[in-house]
Amino acid sequence: MKSILDNRPKLAKQVADVAEVAGYLWQKGWAERNGGNITVNVTGFVDDEIKKLPAIGEPIQIGRRLPHLQGKYFFCKGTNRRMRDLNRWPMENGSFIRIQDDRSSYVIIADNPVKPTSELASHLSIHDYLIGKGSSYKAVLHTHPIDLIAMTHNRKFMEKDKLTYLLWSMIPETRAFCPRGLGIVPYKMPSTFELADATIDQLNDYDVVMWEKHGVVSVSDDVMEAFDMVDTLSKSAQIYLTAKSMGFEPEGTSVEDMEALGKAFNLPK
Ligand code: 2HA
Ligand code: ZN
Predict the structure, then answer these.
(1) Which residues are catalytic, by number?
(2) Which residue, 55, 53, 38, is CA-closest to 5?
(3) What pTM, to 2 d.p., does this model score?
(4) Ligand 2 centroid vs 237 CA: distance in angstroms?
(5) Which residues pair with 60 in a beta bridge?
């Protein structure tokens, strides 16, 4: 069967990376049923021929105008699709979308008529914010990591930067590779612009944001880095809960050691 990815190795690599990460999310146990979503800004890999491809179906309204997204292209996991299926058959469970000139609607350009993710409101709002501030970030990942979500069920962890310092102090990697820490968004209805805007607010200070009692959002240059940050934070949460299940409160790296690490790696906080 002919595919949009034929003879386009760079675009195909973007989709292959999404598929690879989708497999990790399933293996991690973070992607029950259709849980989680991935979108990647692939505008830089789209050629003139793709730009001329007819849309599948009519334009679909986003629900708000996103000023920086005109003519931008995204690869998106399909709504109601499973990560484990996206892993094996990415073009049957994901699609490219193009934002229309009105900046408030999109069309699907793809091998199959796959409607994009239920969290498109927040994903596209985040991409709009990233482009608007001139960020190099192209990937937005949302997933449901068991350990990190469990921690958001405890009010004491919801205080600003409480989780950041706790998770940083479990293992140096987390401080080094998740240097901006973990933002917090109090519980909000999934798929809403309210959730999108609260997330963007946190992205001013953090690259990874917890959605209380729901999941995590991570933004980065590419989907692999976005996954790695969540994986690293989850490792710290695992160390914390392993110590707790052994019956003691983990000591955590000292403030001095953490500051020394910050200096050595030239970390932002
Ligand atoms: O796509 O995770 O937040 C399913 C979800 C919604
Ligand atoms: Zn979710």
Answers:
(1) 119
(2) 53
(3) 0.97
(4) 19
(5) 106
Which tokens sit at 195?
Answer: 């959730």
Structural contact between residues 253 and 169, judged by C-beta atoms closer than 8 angstroms = yes
- The whole-angstrom separation of Cα 66 and Cα 44 is 19
Instruction: Give the residue ranges of DSSP H helices in the chain.
Output: 9-27, 48-51, 83-88, 90-93, 120-132, 146-151, 162-168, 172-177, 193-203, 223-245, 255-264
Pocket of ligand 1 contains residue 190 by CB under 6 Å: yes
Please determine, for residue 269, whether its predicted confidence score (pLDDT) is greater than 70. Answer: no
Taking only Cα atoms into account, the Rg of the chain, rounded to an integer number of angstroms, comes to 19
pLDDT tens-digit series, residues 135-154:
999 999 999 999 999 999 99
Task: Match 């940083």 to its residue by tokens.
Answer: 168
Cα 183 from Cα 198, distance rounded (Å): 10
Domains of the chain with CATH codes: 1-119 (3.40.225.10), 145-269 (3.40.225.10)
| Residue closest to 91 by CA, chosen among 66, 105, 108, 106 | 108
Name the closest-CA residue to atom 4, ligand 1: 35
Residues at Cβ < 5 Å from ligand 2 ion: 215
Do 204 and 129 contact (CB within 8 A), yes or no? no
CA 120 to ligand 1 centroid distance, Å: 10
pLDDT digits (tens, 9 = 90+) for 21-34: 999 999 999 999 99
Q: Using CA atoms, how far apart are residues 160 and 214, in angstroms rounded to an integer?
A: 18
How far apart are alpha carbons 44 and 33 in whole angstroms? Answer: 31
Residue 215 alpha carbon to ligand 2 centre in Å: 6
